[in-house]
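Example record used in the benchmark description.
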Amino acid sequence: MRLLHVHSGNLYGGVESMMLTLARESARTAKIAHEFAIAFDGRIACELRSAGVPVHLMGSVRVRNPLSAWRARRRLKRLLKAQRFDAVICHMPWNHAIFAGVVRRARRPLVFWMHGATTGRHWTELWAALTPPDLALCNSRFTASMLPLIFPRVPPHVIYCPVAIPDERPIRSRALELRDELATARDAVVIVQVGRMESLKGHAALLHALAPLRDRNWICWQAGAAQRPHERAYVDGLRRLADELGIGDRVKFLGHRSDVARVLAAADIYCQPNSAPDAFGLSFIEALGAGLPVVTTAIGGAIEIVDETCGVLVAPDDKAALAGALGRLIDDIDFRHRLGAAGPARAKALCDPPAILREIASLIEELH
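Model output (structure tokens):
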């Protein structure tokens, strides 16, 4: 089976991480070949090429420049005419809006993969709605509940994002070497958060919850780079907030890390108290796979991932409950280890790549 994934590629987050997993799985098995049609030649395009999968560049698309969109669609049209794909998957409404018509006219099975919350009223969603797909994949039950806002007559199929979970954790002594590099005491409890620097991820809530726990021996690592001007302003605001709360010397902003697995292996607790519903949460899966207990808010896709066996769910905007959960995990090493030990099995049960790819292949076979 040959699948073509269509994506913008100008930013880097959970969708791009998932695509890299697909690429690596493609290199391991001959059953499904994943290829990628990318608009912007950025970080994800480079990583996909490094993974050894074909990357077809469509050209940068700016909707305010209709000629750029026309050129990109023509490149996709030529690709679909020259090569055979069993299905074309458009990720997110923007890509579906720009490219779905080309796929439909080429008479290829059209798949829409929904990765985020929606209102159905954004211009990209209204444009995407003009071309209903043959198959709609949703990355959680939460997003599936909103698919009818764009495609009311297309049934959703929930497919969790594939995440490769290592069979063995890194040797702890080697993982702790990262603490030395980051000037972090080896006996401190490291609370880590990884991901895009966006307010819905709850960075500020985490800082507010840590402030009353100053008497505990903890350090907070924030891993993630600002990719747009408003994100840089957001990070600057978080630095100021940490200083105002009196914990500026205990919060380390690590920026972009290409060694996220190593960062997680050197930490003790993962905390991401989302202030608004997140569609799924690849970072939760990666943290569970690394054997970390997860603390988050009981909204969105998180409640499909985290349960009492592997983490703690708190109500949104409940700073006292968040501080209480973190305080208990900091103080109770047995509780921390018990939740962490259940994480890898939970992550694999939800997001094991071979199982998910078999399910995707089965759904696409039904289109033929």
